[in-house]
Amino acid sequence: EKMLIADILSRLAIPDSSTTVTLDDVYKIDCVENELNSINISENINIGQSSMHRVKEEVAKDDTLCMLASIIKTGWPDRKDKLPYSIHPFWEVKDELSVQDGVIFRGNQVVVPRSLRTDFVKKIHLCHLGMNASIRRARDTLYWPFMATELKERIRGCQVCQELAEDQAKTPMKSHQVPYLPWERVSIDTFEYNKQQFIVMVDSYSDFFEVKKTRDITAKSLISFCKENFARYGIPQTIISDNAPQFVGSEFATFARQWEFNHSTSSPMYSKGNGKAESAVKITKKLLKKCERDNIDFQAALLEWRNSPTSEMDSSPSQRLMARRTRTTLPIARKLLVPEVVPGVHDSLEYKRRRSKMFQDRNARCLPDLQIGDEVLVRPSGGHERWTPGTVDNRHNESSYDVTTEGKTYRRNRTWIRPLHHIPEEYNDRPIARKSLPPASESLDNGSSSVKEQIQEEAPASSSSTVTSTHKKSPSNNDNSPKDKSPKKSPSGGPKGPQQAGNHIAQKKHTADVHTKAGRKVKPPCRFSFSNKEFTKKKLKRK
């Protein structure tokens, strides 16, 4: 009455909250329900009728899927731990599951019984598609728990796909330590050009190389070539070569022992293992082709190349090896011919090495190490031939192995070796503790009662622990209970168990009513408890 001017809300009419359901509404609801029941999902998916009939028959024989169908029809519990352990994998997709004519669907995907999965995987991989393509094909129409993982394992073990697989991924760059002195480490290799044999030796510090045409490439010719260069530049500490027969024979080994240098070999059919010598071979072949085309003396061209400064080095191979420029046909000042040690060569080489590794390792990945006795696939001759099964017999270093295949032993780089995978006999998605289950017909016909009994039988230990924790928490919610945390004694003298404590609290709750602040009476939950007579006896014993 003190309000002189009425506001808008005071004059706003109260909406009618009464809702009346008419016969038209009931009729519309029934029509929608009938339309939904008349939809047959199997008619809209890309699976043949014979396959659907097989799925239906196997679903009826599968205890897990029969139990799942019953749960779908009767309703899911509010928590996952109330389900049998065999149904746990379906919990995440429970809202998408449905049963249609005895077949379980996840959306438009057919849930495949365990007995048919191997057969369906073979059909999916019939054209030997890749792993990702096969998974996409399977997800188009099929579903079962951990399907992608099982497909990967089975496709990885396909023998045909493994033998015809592509090259492995590029591995990270691995190189020798950068030398500190000229002619400390040299690499040697042989090559053929225009049906003529050549031998090349290159210094890892200066990139200075020597090349010689020879009648043959036997161990005797190689030793003679090495002695000529050793007499001119000195004996290096290490010589690196490939695994050609003339390098691994006893004659060259005796020469290395007598001249006191270390001999290291790289894996056959892997040119990157002796990359410095391969680079020198490439340069030599280019010089030979260009000199032949332009009718130029090869030795004169080689002299000019040795005196040309290297990119990002500001010094020539002759300067880095002999600490001086060599005289050529070009005019040169006399003071430039004075010997002078080039500073910072090692640091410049380290910088170039790091930068090369950074660019090469962009798309590279490390391959796992192999152990002696592992079953592998190897390419005996390298290149793009078929992968052949074999066994690892020896390991030379972190990237070179001896593999025996078809009665022969080959030394190959890790790039040409890949692990051999086998198809698992039976793929188990997860260990399931199965107990005695009722027949499939009983699970489908009995409805909710059979499902509840199975859930009670197969409930895992976690559910019992949950009940125990509930009993333990109940004393804190009771205002009449004492706040003593010490364990109470049972009639037998031991500590009181959680079940007995819960029963004792339940009795107190029944004897004294508890009300909330608003005055509402608290109704305790129904729990198992002993009779009042037994409770009185136990109370007297404790006293």
From TrEMBL:
Region annotation (Disordered) ranges: 380-407, 429-543
Quote one Gene Ontology molecular function term. Answer: nucleic acid binding
Q: What class of enzyme is it?
A: transferase
Q: Where is the Integrase catalytic domain?
A: 178-339
Q: Which SUPFAM superfamilies match?
A: Ribonuclease H-like
In what ranges is there compositional bias, type Basic and acidic residues? 382-399
Pfam families (alphabetical): Integrase_H2C2, rve
Note the Gene3D superfamilies from the entry.
Answer: 1.10.340.70, Ribonuclease H-like superfamily/Ribonuclease H
Which residue ranges have biased composition labelled Polar residues? 443-453
Query: What biological processes does GO assign it?
Result: DNA integration
Q: Which regions are flagged for Low complexity bias?
A: 462-480
Name the EC number(s). 2.7.7.49
The organism's place on the tree of life at top rank: Eukaryota
Protein name from the UniProt record? RNA-directed DNA polymerase
UniProt organism field:
Lygus hesperus (Western plant bug)
